[in-house]
What we know:
A hairpin with a 2-residue loop joins strand 6 (149-152) and strand 7. By secondary structure, the protein is an alpha/beta fold. It has helices at 2-6, 28-34, 58-63, 80-92, 110-127, 138-144; strands at residues 17-18, 21-22, 35-38, 98-102, 130-134, 149-152, 155-158. The longest helix has 18 residues, at 110-127. Helix content is 35%, strand content 16%. The strands form three sheets. A three-stranded parallel β-sheet has the order 3-4-5. It is built from six helices and seven strands, in the order H-E-E-H-E-H-H-E-H-E-H-E-E. The two termini are 22 Å apart.
Amino acid sequence: MFLRSIADMPPHSGKIMLDGDASGMMSGPEWRKKVGMLPSESSWWFDTVGEHFNKVHEIWFKALGFTPGVLKWHTNRLSSGERQRLALLRLLSNHPEALLLDEPTTNLDLENMKRVEKLLENYRLEEKASVFWVCHDMDQIKRVSNRCFHLKDNQFIEF
């Protein structure tokens, strides 16, 4: 619910800001262009992968182990790991200023997990993006984060 609230999806009474811009001062779709969320399970509404992308960054596809032919793949043939990696690419293609990631590597093998971690680190540095990475793997979160927090009793505790 925390990430969904930052993405301004459910009604809430809080105030969410990014670089001085309040979410309440713009439409939901405008806010979600700035603050992109990757849910733990992605949705696919068109028949082919390519129909889900406005812009294709070939280098990103290659970085996650895909060839250009992936755009012609039918979405119903995608494995859970392929869905997760492609959903991340779909999110990044919108160039959000902040990323809200809910278990972005859960369905991935070690090689693809490392690919995703590297791509996200490069994106964060190149785009100067903020990243909220929710994860249950403490080793991973320490590896990919500058600051780590644990949610306990509705409070964030830094570790």
